[in-house]
Amino acid sequence: METVEDLALHKLPIRNLPRPLYEAPESEVAVRRIMGRVTTYVLKFLSDKYVEQGFEWLLPVVFSKSTDPLWPDPGASIEKRIRCEIYGEVVNTMTSMIVHKMIACSIAFPKLFTYSPNIRIEKRERAYSGVHAYEFTQLDFEVRDASSKDIRSFVEKVICELIRCLRRDMREELLKLGRYEDLAEFEPPFEVYDRAALLKSYGDQWEDKIKLSNRPLWITNIPREFYDFEDFESGFWDNYDLILPGYGEVLSGARREWEYDKLVRKMRRDGVSERDYALLLKLAKEGKLKPTAGAGIGVERLIQWIVGAKHIGEVQPFPKIPGVVYDL
Ligand code: ATP
Ligand code: ASP
Ligand code: MG
After folding, report:
1. With a 6 A CB cut-off, is 95 part of the ligand 2 pocket?
2. Residues 6+ positions from 146 with CB-CB distance below 8 Å
3. Mean pLDDT (the chain, rounded)
4. Which of 112, 158, 284, 299 gives the lowest tally of CB atoms within 10 Å of its CB?
5. What is the pLDDT of residues 20-33, one digit of tens each?
6. How far does residue 262's CA lie from ligand 1's centre (Å)?
7. What is the 3-state secondary structure (H, E, C) of 138-206?
């Protein structure tokens, strides 16, 4: 395992990276306490909202034979995958609960959400992206027979109401964090942009351009993992990312593939092992995988944006910064 000393050998200055709570001076702990209050508010608000809307709240899993391949994805940067042996079987730590969501939603829970711990050993240079941690939480949710538009409209309503309520109930905290004035209220719907069109207009740096927008916006048509729906005829990917103003991506989601033939064809094309998704494929073959759509919100990223923290590690009591392994 990498230690802080090892990191020094890689010549990365850790000076400017967030410290864990037990190493921070009292002034910094005081700020973290305020961020903690906002975090509690946000988690309660989101959980209440999903429950009110009829979602079942599932507890997460940590080990599984099947997890997100995180491939192919234009933004993927994984240094290492964590696999280990338990009871004579090889399991992965979860990169996301996508497979579990698709199956649980198809079989038992037509509307579900979970707070899922994700382990992604991001390349160490991502320490300085400010938005990557190697352990983080997704508010992952999935809805049977939903369209992409259904999911986007739901998220828009939740985000807009969250900001309105935060400005009302957390005014003092946001003022202390210097974020009250800048955290503007928005109205749905958010504009939707096609990734291919953005790439054409702005080149590879399109993401840096669009995050300067002063409103949240959606990006759609992003070629990525086999489970997102792809129209083979038009080449259109029915998926979406939510970009927050002055920040960047906070959510990814999609309508899903559910047909066996398409799933297999995409896995073969992408070089993804069918054996790793044997159960998903078996259920698809038996017609038990249903059309669903959903998304995952990066919880720490959402909170980081709300409180205006420079680095995601500031909103983690025990920061998990790529390349930096603290004691706790
Ligand atoms: P990025 O391109 O920003 O690295 P991603 O597109 O690879 O992210 P997804 O697979 O879409 O990430 O994960 C779903 C959500 O989880 C993201 O929209 C983001 O909010 C959050 N997330 C992903 N990776 C990280 C990370 N390393 N640290 C914190 N949050 C993350
Ligand atoms: N949670 C994402 C989704 O719902 C998948 C991911 O984590 O990559 O599409
Ligand atoms: Mg994404």
Report:
1. no
2. 255, 292, 293, 294
3. 95
4. 158
5. 999 999 999 999 99
6. 25
7. EEEEEEECCCHHHHHHHHHHHHHHHHHHHHHHCHHHHHHCCCCCCCCCCCCCCEEEEHHHHHHHHHHHH
Architecture of 9-315 per CATH? Answer: 2-Layer Sandwich (3.30)
To test the ligand 1 pocket, which listed residue (42, 94, 121, 132) has its Cβ within 8 A of the most ligand atoms? 132
Residue nearest to atom 4 of ligand 2 (CA): 295
pLDDT interval class at 230 (50, 70, 90): very high
- Cα 254 to chain centroid distance, Å, stands at 12
Query: Three-state DSSP class for 248?
Result: strand
- pTM equals 0.95
Tokens, residue 224: 């990525």
Report the 10 Å Cβ neighbour count for 301. 23
Q: State the Cα–Cα distance between residues 245 and 211, nearest whole angstrom.
A: 5
- Rounded Cα distance, 106 and 241, in Å: 23
Number of residues written out for the chain: 328
Strand order in the sheet with 83-86: 63-64, 89-93, 83-86
Minimum-distance ligand 1 atom for the alpha carbon of 75 = 2
Q: Are 89 and 65 in contact (CB under 8 A)?
A: yes
Element (H, E) at 51: helix 26-52
Q: Could you list which residues have their CB under 5 Å from ion ligand 3?
A: 252
Give the count of beta carbons closer than 10 Å to the beta carbon of residue 55.
20
Name the residue with the closest Cα to ligand 1, atom 2.
75
Token code pair at residue 219: 């990006």
**Domain residue limits, the chain:** 9-315
Q: Residue 221: CB within 6 Å of ligand 2?
A: no
